[in-house]
Amino acid sequence: MSVNKLLMNLCFGQYTKLSARCYASVAANLVNNDSIRPKTGILMLNMGGPANIDQVHEYLLRIMTDRDMIQLPVQSKLGPWIAKRRTPEVQKKYSEIGGGSPILQWTNKQGELLCKKLNKISPETAPHKYYVAFRYADPLTEDTLERIRNDGVQHTVLFSQYPQYSCSTSGSSFNAIYNYYKTRELPSEMKWSIIDRWATHPLLVKTFAERIKQELAQFPSEKRDDVIILFSAHSLPLQVVSRGDSYPAEVGATVALVMQELNYCNPYSLVWQSKVGPTAWLGPFTDEALKGYVKQGKKNFILVPIAFVNEHIETLHELDIEYCQELAHELGIERIRRAAAPNDHPIFIDALADIVASHLRSQQPINPKFLTRCPHCVNLNCEASKSWYAKICKI
């Protein structure tokens, strides 16, 4: 018996509510079953990370030659040179966190839990199936788009896994989809819509607040009120900020709401990490902030990866090893802890599900902000991409 007939037989009834509940109970067990044709596909966009040491060079090469991510002079030559030069150093870092990035495992876990919950709370759009589209590592965006075509998805939701939008990260993923379809026909009969940012979602805010509370509880009660909470986000080149990229403001909005959720229980600051190259980047930098506060006599800290939804090299190595271990020892910090990324926290899974379910119920397939370029945008591909998205989302 086919899945469709099984669902009909199991769920057939006189009352709509009963049918919906029955459909949801069956659909909940069909998460990412390759034998079913999904009604709704959730395409989870992120930059990704190398699964093992051997993939590091290719991963860096893709980053260093992506002009949405980074702009270099004579990039076709300088980008590959930088990637080759940095490979041994980055391989060493990945070897120190287990030999590869865990971002795919976390994204798969999040996708599974998301679809299971969606099948229950949004049975009218079920069955749901998640897809992972990484920008610089497997599964690559173009490969995943081919899978979606082959699966015959009726409605594909492009769901950025960067809560705060940046042209360098979120924008690069969306442009990659546009670039793929520039020379291909869109799947016929497929509906498209976009979730491009969700920096202020209340359940995302609550997730970060709960992660911070867990770490604050590990400090002695007499020290707890003096702990400085450092919200650390990936920095951007100042030239990108000056063009009007909304990322710094959106990160700041998340921080403000998290501290409101915490009733402003502790001193806090927004700092920036992962600067690359000699050009000016948005600061203050996380390591320099720690040094500055220690000079002021501060001794207890919590680092919060406020712009990351799962663990990867920037949390597991930069924050945990370089700052919480090595730098803390060098500076004589008394106590420093790092809040976990959202990962599979139940409240975070509820956040993802609510974001998608609300989007599916809404009459807005695309955010007008997404269709608006930065005031000083210099990326002509961005202009073409946004026009294309307006067309496919029927704006």
Automatic annotation (TrEMBL):
Domain of life, source organism: Eukaryota
Subcellular location: Mitochondrion inner membrane
Keywords of the record: Heme biosynthesis, Iron, Lyase, Membrane, Mitochondrion, Mitochondrion inner membrane, Porphyrin biosynthesis, Transit peptide
E.C. numbers: 4.98.1.1
GO process annotations (BP): heme biosynthetic process
Pfam families referenced in this protein's UniProt entry, alphabetically: Ferrochelatase
Source organism: Camponotus floridanus (Florida carpenter ant)
Matches recorded under CDD domains: Ferrochelatase_C, Ferrochelatase_N
Main location: mitochondrion
Alphabetized InterPro entries for the sequence: Ferrochelatase, Ferrochelatase_AS, Ferrochelatase_C, Ferrochelatase_N
PANTHER family in the cross-refs: FERROCHELATASE, FERROCHELATASE, MITOCHONDRIAL
Function: Catalyzes the ferrous insertion into protoporphyrin IX.
Family statement: Belongs to the ferrochelatase family.
Record membrane topology: Peripheral membrane protein
Substrates-to-products reaction catalysed: heme b + 2 H(+) = protoporphyrin IX + Fe(2+)
Family matches, as SUPFAM superfamilies: Chelatase
PROSITE patterns: FERROCHELATASE (PS00534)
NCBIfam families xref list: hemH
GO cellular component, one term: mitochondrial inner membrane
Protein name: Ferrochelatase
GO molecular function, one term: ferrochelatase activity
Pathway entry: Porphyrin-containing compound metabolism; protoheme biosynthesis; protoheme from protoporphyrin-IX: step 1/1
